[in-house]
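Bumping with the actual sequence this time:
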Amino acid sequence: MRVLVVEDERDMADAIVRGLRRKGMAVDVAYDGLQGHEMAYVTRYDVVVLDRDLPGMHGDEICAALVESGTLTRVLMLTASSSVDDKVEGLELGADDYLAKPFDFKELVARVQALGRRATPVAPPVLIAGDLVLDQSRRVVTRGGTPLELTNKEFCVLEELLKAKGGVVSSEELLDRVWDANTDPFTTTVRVTINTLRKKLGDPPLVETVVGAGYRIAEPVVAS
């Protein structure tokens, strides 16, 4: 899941980013409204965690612009006000959810995850390719009934390949969906991650390289 945090209180923004990354999400951050607005249009995020009172460009304007663009990106608006009127106003602007500060981080994570599921085509909770089983909700992967220990990036790469249902996923698409904006687009990190993932998946090989195009799962993927 790709998330953008737009928050001018740097300590809070950085804490949110660290916490969401620990949950396996690819997270970018902007510390003012103008930067956040630009980033939201350059990259297609699943969720934007958007502070309402921002310098440069108000959160209300960013939210309204995203809604008007027709993007699938979901907006979780943050505000220091917990009044009902303020909440209603934020939702009327097109925000998908609303969270008043201070908030419990577990609640923030749950809301971001719920919005992320709405931002992309619905995928079954369990993806299967041959004897490989990936449980998205439990974040568990097994092959032939044996649990596999994958890193967050390996899990997310495998998840994206399985969601493609046998289709080819390019390195650029994997960078966009799994890594954040700090990743060098010319890096070999995708290839390295694919190689380590292949080793952990074992034989017979499941991940195929399609020369000049990307990667795909060789076995047909079915839902459970």
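The tokens above came from a reply further down the thread. The longest strand covers residues 74-79.
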